[in-house]
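Q: Here's a chain of 97 amino acids. Please give me its 3D structure as tokens.
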Amino acid sequence: MAVFELARFKVAPDNVEAMLEGRDAMVAAMRLRFPQLVTAKLARLDDSTWIDVWQWEDLASAKEAAASAPTIPEASKMFSLIEQVESMEHAEIIHEG
């Protein structure tokens, strides 16, 4: 069953440009290592708060990727720009319209 991975985090305004510049490389590296990644969407709530929504084919793939991400250089670089992770959770997709 497909799942969303929902992460809410803070990035200092002076690190936002670096985060956005490195995002494509991070998503590409994750997709290369984990082809079960369906989509990755980033949204801004305010100057420092972001929501990242990734869709995975299944929960096992999402959890494996989350555990392995710090070992992927492009992801590790992105994580170093995060000031605070406010939440990280997985939700089973029940319906799509």
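Q: Can you summarize the key feature?
A: Residues 6 and 53 are 5 Å apart (CA to CA).
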